[in-house]
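Hi all, posting the design record for the shared folder.

TITLE: backbone redesign
STEP: 1 of 1
STRUCTURE INPUT:
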C-alpha cells in the first residue's frame, strides 16, 4: 500500500508540475470556447424550461413539477459547477483555494445527484400515469409530488455536504495533494455507498419503470388492434371513437419512446463516470486525470441535453419555447392560458406526433 500511495502521489505531482504547460494556448482557447458553448446551452435551455412551466398554465401538471425541479438542478449545474470545473480541466490547476474546492465538490455531487433523482421520479410518475391511471391522481397528488421533490433535494444534500465538508469521504486515504489541485479522492466505502445511492438505485428504478411502461404500451396496442378489428365492420359513427383510440395509443407509445431515449442518454453519459468512481479506490487511485475529466464532462452533458430532449419530443414545450424566444409572451396578455398543443403551423403534423 505504501508503494502504491507513493506512486499515486508522484503521478499527481507530475500532473501538478505540468499544469501550466499541459496544453498550448490555441488548444486552451478552443477548449474554453467549446465548454463555454456547452455551459450556455445548459443555462439557457434549463432556464427556458423553468420559465415555460412557470408561465404557461397548461404545463403546470404533476409530471412537469418534477421537470421544473430537474431544470432548476441542471440550471445550477451549469451556473455554479461547470464554470469552475472548466477552469480546472483546461488549466490543469485549481486557482480558487482549498475551502472553495470542498464547497465546489459538495455542490457538484449534490446537484448532479439531484438531477439523477429527478429523472427517476419522472420515470416513476410516468409508470403510474400509464400503468395505473385509475390511481394516478391519488398516488401523484400535489402533496406527494412536493414530498418527492423534497426527497430529490434532501438525500443529495445529505450524501454530499455532510461527508465532504467533514472529510468523511476520504478517511483512510493518506495521499497528500498540492494546494493548487482540487482532486476528489474518496475512500472505498464512500465510493460504493454514494454511487449506489446517487446512480445505481435510481438507474434500477428507471429501468423497471420503463420496462413496465413498455409492456403496458404493448398490451394496450394489442387491445386497440383487436378492438379496431371488431369495429372495422361498424357504421361511420364509430369512426371518431376509433380515431380517439388510435390517438390514445399513439400518445402512450410516444411517452414510452421519449422516456426510453431520455433514459438511454442518461445511462450513456453517467454510467462511465460512476463505474470508474467505484473502481478507482480499489485500484489505488490509478485512473488518469484525463479519463476523470472526460467521464465527468460526459455527465455534465446530460444536464445540457435534458431541456432539448423535452423540447424536441413535447409539442407543448416546443411551442412554449418558440413563444418565449420570440417574445410573444410579452406581446400577448392571453398567452399564459392559451392552448399550446394547437396552432396553424403545426396543424398538419398533429396526426404524426
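Okay, here is what came back for every position:
SEQUENCE:
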Amino acid at each position: 500500500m505504501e508503494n502504491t500511495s507513493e506512486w499515486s502521489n508522484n503521478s499527481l505531482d507530475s500532473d501538478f508540475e505540468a499544469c501550466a504547460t499541459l496544453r498550448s494556448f490555441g488548444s486552451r482557447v478552443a477548449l474554453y470556447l467549446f465548454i463555454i458553448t456547452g455551459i450556455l446551452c445548459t443555462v439557457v435551455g434549463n432556464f427556458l424550461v423553468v420559465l415555460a412551466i412557470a408561465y404557461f398554465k397548461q404545463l403546470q401538471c404533476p409530471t412537469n413539477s418534477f421537470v421544473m425541479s430537474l431544470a432548476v438542478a441542471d440550471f445550477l449545474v451549469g451556473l455554479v459547477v461547470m464554470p469552475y470545473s472548466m477552469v480546472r480541466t483546461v488549466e490543469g490547476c485549481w486557482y480558487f483555494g482549498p475551502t472553495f474546492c470542498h464547497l465546489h465538490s459538495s455542490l457538484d455531487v449534490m446537484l448532479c445527484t439531484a438531477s439523477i433523482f429527478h429523472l427517476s421520479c419522472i420515470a416513476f410518475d410516468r409508470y403510474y400515469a400509464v400503468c395505473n391511471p385509475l390511481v394516478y391522481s391519488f398516488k401523484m397528488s400535489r402533496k406527494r409530488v412536493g414530498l418527492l421533490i423534497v426527497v430529490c433535494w434532501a438525500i443529495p444534500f445529505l450524501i454530499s455536504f455532510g461527508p465532504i465538508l467533514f472529510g468523511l469521504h476520504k478517511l483512510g486515504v493518506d495521499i497528500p495533494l498540492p494546494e493548487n489541485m482540487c482532486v476528489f479522492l474518496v475512500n472505498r466505502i464512500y465510493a460504493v455507498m454514494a454511487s449506489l445511492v446517487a446512480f445505481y438505485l435510481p438507474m434500477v428504478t428507471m429501468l423497471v419503470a420503463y420496462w413496465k411502461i413498455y409492456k403496458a404500451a404493448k398490451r394496450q396496442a394489442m387491445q386497440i388492434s383487436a378492438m379496431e378489428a371488431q369495429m372495422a365492420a361498424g357504421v361511420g359513427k364509430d369512426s371518431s371513437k376509433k380515431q380517439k383510440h388510435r390517438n390514445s395509443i399513439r400518445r402512450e407509445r410516444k411517452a414510452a419512446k421519449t422516456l426510453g431515449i431520455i433514459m438511454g442518454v442518461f445511462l450513456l453519459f453517467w454510467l462511465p463516470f460512476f463505474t470508474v468512481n467505484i473502481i478507482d479506490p480499489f485500484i489505488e487511485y490509478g485512473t488518469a486525470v484525463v479519463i476523470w475529466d472526460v467521464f465527468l464532462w460526459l455527465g455534465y452533458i446530460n444536464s445540457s441535453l435534458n431541456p432539448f430532449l423535452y423540447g424536441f419530443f413535447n409539442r407543448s414545450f416546443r411551442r412554449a419555447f418558440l413563444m418565449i424566444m420570440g417574445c410573444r409572451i410579452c406581446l400577448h396578455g392571453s398567452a399564459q392560458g392559451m392552448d399550446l398543443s394547437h396552432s396553424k403551423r403545426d396543424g398538419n403534423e398533429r396526426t404524426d406526433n
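COMMENT: The first helix runs from residue 2 to 17.
Let me know if anyone wants the other runs.
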